[in-house]
Amino acid sequence: MIHPISWEFSWPYLLTALAGGYLLGAIPFGLILTKLAGLGDVRKIGSGNIGATNVLRTGRKGLAAFTLVLDTGKGAAAVLIGAYYGPDIMIIAALGALIGHLFPVWLKFHGGKGVATAAGLMLALAWPAALISIAIWLFLAMTFRYSSLAALIATLCIPPLSYWLSTPQIAEFSILITLLIWYRHIPNIHRLLNGTETRIGS
Asked: Residue 117, CB half-sphere, CA atoms under 13 Å: how many?
């Protein structure tokens, strides 16, 4: 069980944690893997996203799965490394990792949608809530075949699940996660409303 956040560290430590988490989260695994596989720039196909869903549109399921694992892993790693230095450092490092994935400086601040990285963060912060949310995502994605719709609804479930199964502090942080992911999904929301959103496997 993670202890309540105390914010007892000084700002230099917090900024270091934020920067470290950012650099970890900003590693664009989807882009790196597709280029190493000789598939070119994944940003030039499908949705233009660097995440696992768009990597899947290359037809390489294994590569997409590896992207998913690495994007999830970097979120979990940020939490676990930060936790060694205290709960406040842990939360700041987690926030940095998500921001880094969403807005990586070396991709002109246009990164992924943050779903896999957020899942990694929550698995390390509050795994019961994360597992239920992931199950919701899987059910919705398999039923409706819209990755974005599944992500939007699943992330909405994270704060109440975290409050119920973890701590109020983690629940509050999960609200920020949800807001950031919804912000990055604004174009997807427009396409869902217009009926032009791409289905999984298309």
From this structure: 34
8 A C-beta contact, residue 178 and residue 155: yes
Residue pair 178/138 in contact (Cβ under 8 Å)? The answer is no
Residue 54 CB neighbours (<10 A): 24
3 state SS of 157: helix
CA 157 to chain centroid, in Å, comes to 15
* Rounded CA separation 190/182 (Å): 12
Residues 10-31 have pLDDT tens digits of 778 889 999 999 999 999 999 9
Kindly report the length of the chain: 202
The number of CA neighbours under 13 Å toward the Cβ of 175 is 7
Sign of torsion over alpha carbons 119, 63, 145, 147: positive
SS3 letters for 34-89? HHHCCCCCHHHCCCCCCCHHHHHCCCCHHHHHHHHHHHHHHHHHHHHHHHCCCHHH
4 φ/ψ angles, rounded to the nearest 5 degrees? -55, 150
CB distance 60 to 91 below 8 Å: no
Query: Around Cβ 120, how many Cβ atoms within 10 Å?
Result: 29
pLDDT tens digits along 118-146: 999 999 999 999 999 999 999 999 999 99
What does pTM read for this prediction? 0.91
